[in-house]
């Protein structure tokens, strides 16, 4: 499902995955062939500073120029792209409705959606999908009786803010591309996880720590049961280093990533800053996972997967594992893509994988799919 899909007719067209993050723009092109999914292109470019703030496009000219040069450098010919929204501009929520005819659903869902959306219903673009969570083939009659929901249906509702969607439409046009699908980060990452996990069934969580967003998504048998975004991320650390040492953004970034020539005092100070942010992220995640454990006591999370560049922050994985007592593994969305090692260094793909999850997930989308 998606917030916007401008595809028409039954013919599916492949899309280039374009992840416009606040720190970097990533692009992935995948070709579906008899050999499997082939990685055709992958590249990144820095996002101009402060051009994307809280998911909103603040500088169309600078960002579209960066996208144009990324496409040019990689020689990508396909102009149809899938992009995604995140943060406050989108809401994904599972609701329960009485079973009803398809024709009545649209109206009922709009009414129900009004309760959950902190904006006017006319300010958002709505999409929904009926989840087959109560598929009688999969659940025993006991479980069905427990939930008492044979005449209810679970509906996943997605709402994207129109003004933010309009910003993306304008941005993609300015980059001389066509916006085919607008997805949301959390679904794109989930799709990327599904093609790269050895056991995509069961209950697991995907934690994403980007530059300015911390996303938590818990999945049970392929369906998201809980998701939440908070405004945490690696930029918090970079900004704290900027103010502590009075240095510009780029220098603070490189200090954060273990910049050369730092004396022991500076290193200790940076480590202190990093540790304090990591502590906050872990406590936010632990809080959410405890909530999920209390709400869905039968769905014990067996593993945590990490995505996003800041999930590589020193100490984060170890600390998260210790606090939650759940094994934590980095996601590598390239794992099962066929990649020619003449063009793509396998070690680099493995290293950069967590940052590429959204773009890989978007590249799996086609024009006209639901
Ligand atoms: N090895 C690393 N160790 C620690 N932090 C890293 C590492 N590599 C990248 N980062 C940080 O990860 C962040 C970028 O991650 P990512 O590409 O996932 O963000 P984004 O998608 O651009 O941002 P958004 O949060 O808006 O989605 C930056 O803050 C960067 O400093
Ligand atoms: Mg991101």
UniProtKB/TrEMBL annotation:
Gene Ontology BP annotations: cell division
> For the SHS2 domain, which residue ranges apply?
15-193
Superkingdom of the source species: Bacteria
Cross-referenced InterPro entries? ATPase_NBD (IPR043129), FtsA/MreB (IPR050696), PilM (IPR005883), SHS2_FtsA (IPR003494)
Signal peptide positions are: none
Q: Which Pfam families match?
A: PilM_2
Q: Which NCBIfam families match?
A: pilM
Protein name in the entry: Type IV pilus assembly protein PilM
- Organism field: Candidatus Desulfacyla euxinica
**Gene name per UniProt:** pilM
């Amino acid at each position: 499902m998606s917030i916007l899909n401008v595809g028409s007719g039954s013919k599916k067209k492949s899309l280039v995955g374009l992840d416009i993050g606040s720190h970097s723009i990533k692009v992935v092109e995948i070709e579906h062939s008899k050999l499997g999914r082939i990685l055709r292109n992958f590249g990144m470019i820095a996002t101009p500073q402060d051009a994307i703030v809280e998911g909103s496009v603040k500088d169309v000219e600078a960002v579209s120029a960066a996208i144009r040069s990324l496409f040019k450098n990689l020689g990508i010919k396909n102009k149809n792209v899938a992009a995604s929204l995140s943060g406050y501009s989108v809401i994904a929520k599972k609701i329960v409705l009485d079973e009803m005819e398809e024709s009545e659903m649209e109206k009922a869902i709009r009414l129900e959606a009004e309760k959950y959306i902190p904006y006017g219903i006319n300010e958002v673009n709505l999409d929904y999908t009926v989840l087959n969570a109560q598929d009688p083939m999969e659940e025993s009659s006991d479980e069905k009786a427990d939930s008492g929901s044979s005449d209810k249906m679970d509906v996943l509702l997605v709402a994207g803010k129109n003004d933010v969607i309009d910003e993306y439409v304008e941005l993609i046009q300015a980059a001389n591309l066509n916006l085919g699908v607008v997805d949301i980060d959390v679904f794109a990452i989930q799709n990327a996880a599904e093609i790269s996990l050895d056991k995509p069934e069961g209950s697991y969580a995907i934690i994403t720590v980007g530059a300015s967003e911390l996303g938590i998504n818990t999945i049970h048998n392929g369906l998201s049961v809980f998701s939440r975004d908070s405004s945490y991320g690696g930029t918090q650390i970079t900004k704290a280093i900027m103010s502590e040492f009075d240095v510009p953004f780029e220098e603070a970034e490189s200090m954060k990533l273990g910049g050369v020539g730092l004396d022991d005092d500076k290193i200790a100070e940076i480590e202190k800053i990093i540790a304090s942010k990591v502590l906050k992220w872990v406590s936010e995640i632990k809080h959410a996972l405890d909530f999920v454990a209390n709400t869905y006591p039968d769905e014990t999370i067996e593993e945590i997967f990490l995505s996003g560049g800041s999930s590589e922050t020193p100490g984060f994985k170890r600390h998260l594992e210790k606090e939650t007592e759940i094994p934590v593994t980095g996601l590598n969305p390239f794992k099962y893509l066929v990649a020619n090692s003449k063009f793509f260094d396998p070690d680099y793909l493995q290293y950069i994988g967590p940052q590429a999850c959204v773009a890989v997930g978007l590249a799996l989308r086609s024009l006209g799919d639901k």
